[in-house]
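hi!! sorry for the late reply, been swamped w classes. u asked for the two structures so here they r. pasted raw, havent cleaned anything up. first the sequence of the first protein and right below it the tokens
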Amino acid sequence: MKNILETLKKKILSLVLALMMTLGSYAPAKIEIASAPEKSERSVRILSQNLRCNNDLYGFVKNRALFVSEMLKNYEPDSFGVQEATETWLSLLDESLGEKYARVGEPRDNAKNTEYSAVYYRTDKFELLDEGTIWLSKTPEKFGSKSFLASMPRICTWATLKNKETGFVYTHVNTHLDFLVEYTRSKQSEVLLSKIGELQKVGPLVCTGDFNADERDETYEKMTAALDDSRLLAKETESGKTFHNYGRGDLFHKTAIDFIFVSKGTEVERYKIIKDTVDGMYLSDHYGIMADIIF
């Protein structure tokens, strides 16, 4: 009985804090994010985070942007991809991260509160060689296009980066597949993989994103036929769901739906699910994921 009461107390407190945040009447005195694991000099740190585009009962964007920014500063990825990134989100992240990071990417359409699947990279370490965005449709070059029964236009964005000291080049691709039906995601993954095939001619590649599919789905099978799942390669790794719906759980997926895929033959030192909270509040309705990669 005591455990049940403690659990209920925590849930009530979390809801009260969430409501205060949404109304703008609460801000943490100090934002504390768990320490990030150390990164070896040989590895490239890649991160992916679905931001949850909207303000809602479980988190006001302006506050959560502070949390996410502190997490990013702590983990200090070489490049990272974000999903559900509205212009409000991007402006807040740009302001917080400053000149250390630059980003590439186009909006998926001209709708109000449209979303980006932007890629950010460290400007102190990397030179941008190439970047672009395509639509995961029958007409990938057509702005705002959608196909395959998609609920909305879906995109992938990439940045090809050159290490300023070593000259090493890799490409970071970032995407967000549709949520409605597996047929749509499977067809979108084919368009995505076609572009990835072109980009891998330049050098090794990572592909981050919210795939809205777990390891049982055809989308995952197609992705892992062409690329490797960093979680399965990592010497130090962990398993678990990545969509948690602000701690309320995921009834539709058995495993993670956010992935960091890497070119075949890539070595992965570490894979981590980032479960940081601030005063019990989540950064998003998805956990972030991180991989330390040696190409």
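now the second protein. again sequence first, tokens right under
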Amino acid sequence: MDTTRTQPSPLSLKANTLWNAFGCLFYLGCQWLTSVLVVRLSTGYQNSGALAFAMATGIVFASIGLYKIRTFQVSDVAGEFANSDYVAFRFVTIAAGLIWSAIYLPLGTQGNVAFLSASAAYLVFKSDEVFSDVLYGIDQRGGRMDYIGKSQLMRGVLSLVGFAAPLALFDNLVAGILGMAVCCMLVTLLYDIPHARRFGPMRPTFTDERMKALARACLLAMVASLCANGITSLVRQYFGVTYGSEALGIYASVATPAVLIQVSATYLYSPLIGSLAEAWSTKGHAAFLRVFAKVLAAILGVVAVFVVLLSLVGDWGLTLVFGASIAPYTYLFPFVLIATGCVGVLFYTNDVLLVIRRSGAMLVADGVALVVALALAVPLTAQLGMNGINLAIIGGCLVAIAFSLAFIVRARA
């Protein structure tokens, strides 16, 4: 590969935002369809519950694997670390996430073979997804998020086919998950890696000094992200272990479409991370707060619109997709939407704290929030059933958002 060639010309902010949002939302929609197909192609909700548990495990694994490096990578305007450093460190963090999973899963599944086998297979899929993220970071720094969007379009189609065909053919959830993983790995090998190489060398260099520097730079942020993601995943896992895979599967069927709100918020502000970093470093605190507030207002507006519109069609849509068996549980949907919207806002404030290099504050906010969410989950799920999951998530997120806003407003460069 000739690394001396001219790098691709960057696209405009608008074009990058549109490509990123369209591709990623399409991929998300295909991932949601897997939660529909697992119900439609299975008898009952047991496979859906096992998939939901595996996804919750994958969220925690991803927190370690991603190590909250993407925001740090994109906001590294001074070029402190090379692409090869970021790629090498991603291999290290994926290995760390798999080691954690090997310890956690036998304990967390409490002997449930369906949960354990589905989670192990899902980690194969998630490892590829986590690795592709560092390549997307290279694309984003180069101003070519159309590469990301096109990759996500291909992943969406192929993952859906790779999941549905083995599941229908073998009536086996693990086969479906592994089929999905293989299809996405092909996109990584044949498209993502060649395109990321256009921005220069990215062969991983495992230098102790550089790996330790990156580990120190984002350690607190990674632990904080682990806590933030745990607000949703650990509450759901607690519910699944306590009340069974079918109950969790029903909740997941209602809840999965709501992730649209969370990712819409993420894709709205993700292309602006560089602008936030520049405002923080060059334009002063007041100018930075104006940019921060404008983006926050836009996120809140998008969340509000989604909550209202999706609540209006939720009962009809869920019944249409999943059948009459889901009808007694559609009342959960508006609360799920609000909870997911709160997670989206929390992720924004977390990324802003990382941009301004306040990882310690991020850890405090998310750590307290996780404790609050888990403390609320036990009594609320006992009294309110599945809706207790939503209220525990909302309570934890609101605590973290309040702490984060206080830190952001008071911070100085």
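hope this helps!! also noticed smth abt the second:
The chain has a mean pLDDT of 87.
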